[in-house]
Write a structure and sequence with these properties.
The complex is a heterodimer of chains A (113) and B (114). Chain A has 113 residues and is mostly beta strands. Helices cover 0% and strands 51% of the residues of chain A. In chain A, the strands form 2 sheets. In chain A, strands 2, 4, 5, 6, 9, 10 and 11 form a 7-stranded mixed β-sheet that branches. Chain A starts with a strand and ends with a strand. The relative contact order of chain A is 0.33. By secondary structure, chain B is mostly beta strands. In chain B, strands 2, 5, 6, 10, 11 and 12 form a 6-stranded mixed β-sheet that branches. The relative contact order of chain B is 0.34. The interface between A and B is medium-sized, with 25 and 24 residues.
């Protein structure tokens, strides 16, 4: 089946710890995205990548980092600098144009211990 | 900055009632418009989209939306809701300049009681 696979489904972070969320797609899409979903705030863009080895900050990039070494993979690291990391994280991909038609993974729920 | 407003945060309806969810955006240029839906325990998925042409667009499961350019609106409608329509609905917009970043509204939680 073609789609977006996010892992793990649930993740717990200790104080001062960096954690990495995985996102893999087999849709052969050029563009990939990371969003943070908080109740009542919709989806906010963290980072996006239009092509391998290139990525740009979204609206709330502070405390996060990404890499795009392979077309199918776009991992997100939540660093210790992110003081409020508890949220639902969604990964998506799209053909570059039209970028509005995005395909989403099932999400990772991150909580702080 | 571009923004998308969804005025109804929570909506509760009985089955067979009609639905209209409001969506307004702030951008004066050409836009592409979308409604995404997140059913409980499922992936966020595209419900319908508008790029150009007929401003009344039809999507999956009997949903439709009307683009009114003069009002900067893209309201979602369904004549008769079902219990299975219980979900969170997100309006989203891309601006037709440069990389088409998708900007989401805050979402509307719809609960349909049987």
């Amino acid at each position: 089946d073609g789609g977006i696979t996010q892992s793990p489904k649930y993740l717990f972070r200790k104080e001062g710890q960096n954690v990495t969320l995985s996102c893999e797609q087999n849709l052969n899409h050029d563009a990939m995205y990371w969003y943070r979903q908080d109740p009542g705030q919709g989806l906010r863009l963290i980072y996006y990548s239009q092509i391998v080895n290139d990525f740009q900050k979204g609206d709330i990039a502070e405390g996060y980092s990404v890499s795009r070494e392979k077309k199918e993979s776009f991992p997100l690291t939540v660093t210790s600098a992110q003081k409020n990391p508890t949220a639902f994280y969604l990964c998506a991909s799209s053909m570059e144009v039209p970028a509005g038609i995005q395909y989403f993974g099932a999400g990772t729920r991150l909580s702080v211990l | 900055a571009q923004s998308v407003s969804q005025h109804n945060h929570h909506v509760i309806l009985s089955e067979a009632a009609s639905l209209e969810l409001g969506c307004n955006y702030s951008y004066g240029g050409t836009v592409n418009l979308f409604w995404y839906v997140q059913y409980p325990g499922q992936h966020l998925q595209l419900l319908l989209k508008y790029f150009s042409g007929d401003p009344l667009v039809k999507g999956i499961k009997g949903f439709e939306a009307e683009f009114i350019k003069s009002k900067f609106s893209f309201n979602l409608r369904k004549p008769s809701v079902q219990w299975s329509d219980t979900a969170e609905y997100f309006c989203a917009v891309t601006m037709n300049t440069g990389f088409q970043k998708l900007v989401f509204g805050t979402g509307t939680r719809l609960l349909v009681s049987p």
